[in-house]
Amino acid sequence: MLSILLRKTTLFISSIIVLLGLTFWFHVRVRNLGDSELLYELFDYLQRIFTLDFGISNESGQLVLEMFVPAFIASMELVVISILISAAIGIFLGAYSALHKDTIIDSILTNTSIFLSAIPVFWLAQILISVISVYFDIIPSQHRISPLYDVPNVTGMILVDTLLISGKDGFSSFFNALVHFPLPVLALSILPITEVIRITRNSLYGVMRTNYIKLAFSRGYSPFYVITRHAIRNALPQMFQQSNTIIFLTFTSVIVVENAFNWPGIGTMIVEAIKNRDYNIVNIYLVFIGGLFILLNTAIEAMAEISQLFKVGGVKFHG
């Protein structure tokens, strides 16, 4: 286990160095620096990165870090909820499909997943807004909360901050914030759900064909017991290895979803920054999001390799 951690730590550090090299190249290209200034500028750039000094926004004049942090928290609130929902629905449907391999249920789930994965996120977001929010007027589709509510920014997470408001106003603001989540979460979750179904189905199906799983079923154990107690343990390494795909899909889709629903997150911020040529915001986005991707990818690969150490080749049954 120690060798795995050392190897992944080395990979993480080297990847961060490559990321900083790429962002410095972007920094140089934007400012048209000469060759004689590169060495000095490199040390200055690294010093500012490590001290979290990303300068000010050319458009608003605010510190870039102070603008980025609330937007990042708003995006992470949406992303985490979407990933949790995607994992819960996808694992359940994927396991159900694996249990009913080559049946009509499996065909329906597989074909539906393929169809949904082919739908562009921006088109799905517009359909949800047009049908659910505009035509039927069921729930709102814009922003995180109605402008009528003045919610103090304590944690940056709107659902948490509204809960911190006491009394009737707190419940009203929390409910208003809550009904703003279903449409963007649904638009952001569809593609990851299809991937989780595919990954879970393929991972579990290979495990379900092993002799000790067949023995468990022959003993009369329920499918839920066999999957949760035996099958999922051996399927976890393969599921871990592919889970970074789910995170990548969610983060790449969040830019489109946030702009469609006017969500005040980093997706909306980066699009506005590119349009306004606000390169300090672009730079902090590249550094933080690139670093986050590298960290998550390295951690997931490490967990997948470590989980292999605890993989079992059989199950002991009693009674």
Notable characteristics:
disordered C terminus, 319 residues, mainly alpha
Report on this model:
This protein is mostly helical and 319 residues long. Helix content is 76%, strand content 0%. The protein has 12 helices and no strands. It has helices spanning 2-31, 38-50, 64-99, 104-117, 121-135, 158-163, 167-178, 182-208, 211-218, 223-261, 266-275, 279-309. Helix 1 runs antiparallel to helix 12, helix 3 runs antiparallel to helix 4 and helix 3 runs antiparallel to helix 10 (223-261). The protein is globular, with a radius of gyration of 23 Å. Residues 312-319 have low confidence and may be disordered.
Number of strands: 0
What gross morphology would you assign?
A: globular
Distance between the termini: 35 Å
What is the helix content? over 70%
Mean pLDDT: 81
Task: List the secondary-structure elements in sequence, H or E.
Answer: HHHHHHHHHHHH
Q: How large is the count of helical segments?
A: 12
User: Which residue ranges are poorly predicted, with pLDDT under 50 across at least 5 consecutive positions?
Assistant: 312-319
Tell me the fraction of residues in β-strands, as a range.
under 5%
Radius of gyration: 23 Å
Largest sheet: none
Which structural class best describes the helix and strand composition? mainly alpha
